[in-house]
Design a protein that fits this description.
12-stranded antiparallel barrel, 9% helix
Amino acid sequence: MDPFYGAILGLACLVGLAAAPRLAVADDLATKATNPIGDLIQIQLQYQHGSNIYDLDGSSDTAIVQPVIPIDLPWESVPKMITRTTIPYVSTPDLPGSGSVDGIGDTVFLGFLLPKLETEGVMLGIGPALGLPTASEDETGSDAWSVGPAAVYINLQTKGWLWGALTYGLWDVAGDGDRDDVRQIDIQPILNKYFNDGWYLGLQDIAWTYDDVTDDWFMPIGPRLGKTTKIGSQPMNIFAGVYYNPMDTTGTAEWTFKLSLSFLFPE
């Protein structure tokens, strides 16, 4: 799918939501749904299409299942942990000697411990990042177990805005010694503006990735438009976005289209 037509499709879905009868969904649900350490269960289903792959032919497609699950902890000073698990199914561009390859990718688990803070409107999460070698094909994963730290900062002190950053690193600790090392850092800037009826506009939710082995970046930049609503009695978060990557790193997409549909389970 060309990113332009994908964007039109995604935005058409959102316009359709705007034209539908308004349903009673609290505006703060949009804030929680777009906060990576928001206190609600989410089951996110995402689709990414990459086009104009640098130095390769074809396109890339990724389907992602991403459950976000809060866990209550027994400590008063750290009462909550937010877990996020990303499980991708990848279709690669045409690779030298093998063509396009489809398969499950590596799983990434993030766990954020949320300490109680005295400053109102500020949230901080710290914890582990784990990379699990779940790829079904050599071309769709690293075949390495990797670990590292994860951290996120969220500021909600300005009404109608959320900003901050999320970052984690992964370094391989076990796996196939004949494969390339895993040494990467992911950084996701976060900025969202909220409107009435669950609408919001923000930056992409795809992290910038630095590969310390190759000294290369993948840096998608662009907006996403989303809305929290109800389909029947089920709260949902839907967004679409188109992002440009100016870093001409081999194998990365110049343009990425993303469409996300999340089932929300607020307490």
